[in-house]
Every structure is written in structure tokens, then in C-alpha cells.
Amino acid sequence: MQAHDITPRQRQILKAVIHDYITSGAPVGSRSIARRYLSDLSAATIRNVMADLEEVGYLSQPHTSAGRVPTDLGYRFYVDSLMRRPKLSKVDESRIEKGIRPSWGQAEELMQVTSRILSDLSHYAAVVLAPKLTQNTWRRIDFVHLNRERILVVLVADSGLVQQKVIVIDEVIEQTELDRISRYLSTLLGGATLHQLRNRIVARMAEERDEFNQLMRRALELSNKTMEGEGGEVYIGGAANIAHQPEFADVKKMKEMFQAFEEKSRLVKILDQFLAPGGVRVLIGGESEIRELRELSLIASPYKSGDHVLGVLGIVGPKRMAYQRMVALVDFTARLMSKILTEAAA
Length: 346
What we know:
Blueprint: H1 8-24, H2 30-36, H3 43-55, E1 59-60, E2 69-70, H4 72-82, H5 90-100, H6 107-122, E3 125-129, E4 138-145, E5 150-157, E6 162-168, H7 175-189, H8 194-207, H9 213-227, E7 234-237, H10 239-243, H11 251-262, H12 264-272, E8 281-284, E9 296-305, E10 308-318, H13 323-345
Antiparallel strand pairs: 1-2, 3-7, 3-10, 4-5, 5-6, 8-9, 9-10
């Protein structure tokens, strides 16, 4: 059934069933809809419409004697065609802004704070995909000697975010040499990505005199090491919140869910789908490629600096969630982060 095939009455009843199920968590009967939402319709009329909606796949009936619950298809129609897009309260907006603004400079702290705020306000899990080192543009890079084989890389992005990474090298490089390499690379950066930086080093090596080759060789090696294994870090806040939902009283379901959160590489693959510009998107139940997340929904949005997308943030919760409020939370937070990061890059 397509959106234009739904009659106004069917839309009205489907919306009422979803609102009631989100609130109660129990299968919804026709008498409940008549009493709470549509007193001008008889229970028999509502029951017939609910049967029609079940036939086309928007509702299901767990047991023959029970009421109906929304299906993934029903939720999808609700999100796309029935749901209003309310604004957050000024209190919530203020809480998000006061939490995020003081921590924007350090990437790790910003991601952690954002995931914590979203999980606290939603009472579900929150996920934040940090900017990927290879996709960001940089204004400065520093190398700090930690011990014989390990070096701390400190990168300052054009957006003002500071990201850090520890790399392992094959030869000892003293701090004085690391300082020379840092200064050299920082002169080459000028808003480049790490891939562009590497290409610039290779081009310079073909042009410069022999005495510079060792410096550039080491600079190239450190640049390559910095890019190794760079898949984007995922920060998860409030995962335990989902375990308190009645849908996850089943221990097996709960274990599967936590297993999915632990395998962050799979989460990165899902969140990568949201990196394209376009605002908030909703992934519902069986639409997910991860089997263990098919009892959940993901509401996520990219955040950016100027026109450059940096990462993704979102909320993960049961399919029976208050989509209106969750979409508003994600949308406001992503727009605020984008505003802060754009201002910092100006």
C-alpha cells in the first residue's frame, strides 16, 4: 500500500495506534482507540480499519485475542508521512548548548560529552562517529616522542578540533627530529587532507636536493603510519538504558544487542551510510544490515564544518520510541555542532 492509498480515516487510526503503543508498550485494541483518541467512531468501525491496515502490512496481531502493534512498515509510514516535527523546549536546547560548547576543542571530549547528553535526554543509547583522520582537513600536525617505538600524533583540524593518535614506528626518532618533521609537514598542510599531504611529500621528494630526502622519507613514513587503520572512532553513551525497555526483558535479545554495540566496526559501517548531507534519517528495525539491531531503530544525522561533513551522531532505541522527540533531539544537536565547528573554522 502506497501513501496515497491510505484514506484519511486509516491515517488517523494508524497514527492513534502507534501513539498508544509507544506510550503503553501493550497491543492496542479498538476500544482503547475509541475511548482515548477517536470518540466519534465506534469500536467496530475502528476494528475493521485496523484489520485492513493489518492486511496491507502496517499492523500485526501478536495473538488472535490481542490488539494490534505497528510493524516496521507501519513505523516507516508514520515517520515519513504522519509524524509532526516539533521543536525542542528551550530548556533542552539550553542544556545541550551548555554541555557541548565548553568541550568543542578536544575531539574525544566533545564526542563523549555529546553521546552522554543525547543518552541522558533520550533515555536511550547515543552514538557519535568521530571525524575520520583521513577525511578531515588539517592546519597543523605535531609528533611527540613517548618511548622507543611509540609516538603521539596531535592533529589540529581546520574546524579547530584536536585529535590524537598513538603510532608505532620501526626506528628510533629523537624529539628534535620529530620537531623538524612537524614543522615541515605543517608548512605543507594548509587545509589539506592526510592523503593530499602524502602526495605533496612525494612530489617534493622528486624535486628537492638529496640532503632533504631523509627528512621527507621520515615525514612520509609518519604520515602513512598516521593513516593506518583509520576507520573512525564510535562513542556510545547510555547503552544500558535500552536494557530497561520491556522489549529487552528477553536475555537473549539483550545479549545480542550488547554484542552489536561491542563490535564497533559494524556500527561504523552503518553510521557511514549517514555521512551524506541531507539532515536527519531514520533506520527502522529490519532495515538495518546488522541482525542484532533489527529490534531497534537508529535516528542519526551528519554534523559538519561549513559544507564539509565530519561525522555522524544519533540515538539508538527500541522501535517503540517517541520518534518526534528523538528526531528533534538529533536534529538540534547536529545543527548546533555544525554551527560551532563552522564558527571555529572561520
